[in-house]
Each structure stands twice: as structure tokens, then as C-alpha cells.
Amino acid sequence: MKKIFVVLAVTFAFLSNAKAQKIDTLSITLENVKYPYPVKYLPITTEGQDIKMAYMDVAPTKFANGKTAILFHGKNFGGYYWGNVIKALTDIGYRVIVPDQIGFGKSSKPFIHYSFHQMAAWNKKLLDTLGIQKTIVLGHSMGGMLATRFALMYPDKTEKLLLENPIGLEDYKTFVPYITTEQQYQTELKTTAESVRKYYQTSYFTYWKPEYEYLVNVAGGVTFSADYPRWAKVAAMTFTMIYEQPVVYEFQNLKVPTVLFIGKEDKTIVGKGLLTPDQQALHGQYRFLGKQTASKIPGAKIIEFEACGHIPHVEIATEFLVALTGSL
């Protein structure tokens, strides 16, 4: 009996490992991930380090309208998930700039002090380098916090602010227990492809579909890299950035036209795993947070989506793109 048990245990371990290895090992700068458009790099020097910021610069496919849009990705993503949005915007005449923020995607993963102010300044430098005077800014999730900071710092450069299920609609540090960056790093080190899939299935989407697997392939693929500890460390550092640098108290200071796009089933909380189920139920309720935030921003409009979670441009792509292009 003991021998049979050992054989079964070994077989199960082999099958589990085989399942995990179906996801390709990826480098932490995603060299082997194909982006929807060609990628270029902006050199940056910061804190004594020479780093580079990856970005796509996509020309309009039809008659150019002379306008530009810049897209800011969420914390668990990079420019690779914006393909359908880029196409929709370039089809109606927009030039579209899609950076991978420093610490994310194909960009460098330096150990530095991460701040939304610094990120906003780097994005302004990118736009200045490309000769772009004014832009529409679309930010998803963490990108919404960055887009808000960018619009606050550079209102003259922001033609319109578009926020797609942004995080930071609450001040997480007022109800999520504090943990150090080192503690968060230890948590990040435990990430696996399976834990990524489970998190995306339960936190980001109302109904899981096979076509969402490419998101897992990227976020899960890097966990097999020998350099994954660096990725995990940067992920912990940017977690601390989100926790310590709220924008929620400054929405009333925005001076640019603003539209919020809100999937009403979103229940995202940064640090959700540190809360009890009862505490979780009190926060991250986007069906309420969206309206509350819109009421704080002078002249803001809100477009809400039923039966949609954290990523409308993926989960309900057609409906989102109609709303997005209509708002422009």
C-alpha cells in the first residue's frame, strides 16, 4: 500500500509540474512576448542607473485627426493588453502612445524609489521627446492612479482624462493593515502560474473565458525565470507606492475634462488578502465608488457597465470601445 501511495504521489507531482510547464518561461523584460505593435525604448538615467522605458508609438491607420492618446496599463499588466484599444483609436485618426512604465513589461526593473510623481515626469519626457504637446490620457487600474497624477501635474498637457476602473478610489492605508515592502516581497515570491490564474478568475472577471489565458501566460510565465526575484521585488516596491501615495484626496483638484468607465462588478482592493471577508465586503465596491469619485471631479462624466469586472476593455471589448470612442 505504501509503495502504491508513493507511486501515485510521484505521478501527481509529475502531472502538476507538466501542467505548470505548459506556460512558457518568460524573461522579466518580456523579450519573448510579442506586442501588438513594434516596441521602441526611451533611455532614462535615475538614481545613478541607466535604464530604459519601452513604448509603442502607433500612427493612425486612416485620416489623421492631429490628436494623440497615451495609454497607461495596470499593475499586473503591460502594453501587450491594449491591442484592441490601440486599433480602435488609430482607426479613427489618433496617434497612440503606449508605454510600459519603469518596473513593468519590457521596461527596466531597477531597484529605485518608485513614485507616481516620477512616473508622470518620465511619461512627460517621453511625450516631449516625441514632440507631442497635448494628449488624451487613458489609465486602467494602477494606470488610473498614474493618469490622475499626470493630469494634476500637467493639466496643460492633458486634453482629456479617461479612467477605466482605476484603483486608488479609496485610501487603502486607512483600512488595510500595513506591511513592509520586505513582507510583500516574500508574498510575491510565492506567486505561481496557478495562483495568478485563480486571482484573475476570482478578482478580475465575472466569467472566465479561454481567451483570457494569454494574461496568465505573461504574469505566470515570468515566475519560472531565474530572475523572478527581481520582478517580485519591484512588484513589492510598487505595491508600497500604491499603498503610500493615494490620489483620492485630490480628485477635486482636477482641471481637465474627465470620464470614468466603470465595470460595476469590480471589487478590487489593493491588499485584499490582508482583510477578513467582512472587511472586504465594506470596500472595493465599484458600483458605489465610481459614482462617488465622479461626484468629486468637477464636471466629470461616468459610464457604467453591467456584468463587468475590473478590465472592461478585455471583458466587454465591443461595448467598451463604443463607449470610449463615443466619449472622444
From TrEMBL:
Gene Ontology terms, MF aspect: monoacylglycerol lipase activity
Pfam families: Abhydrolase_1 (PF00561)
Signal peptide residues on this chain, from the entry's feature table: 1-18
AB hydrolase-1 domain: residues covered: 70-314
Alphabetized UniProt keyword annotations: Hydrolase, Signal
GO (cellular component) term, any one: membrane
Biological processes, Gene Ontology terms: acylglycerol catabolic process
Name of this chain's protein: Alpha/beta hydrolase
Origin species: Pedobacter frigidisoli
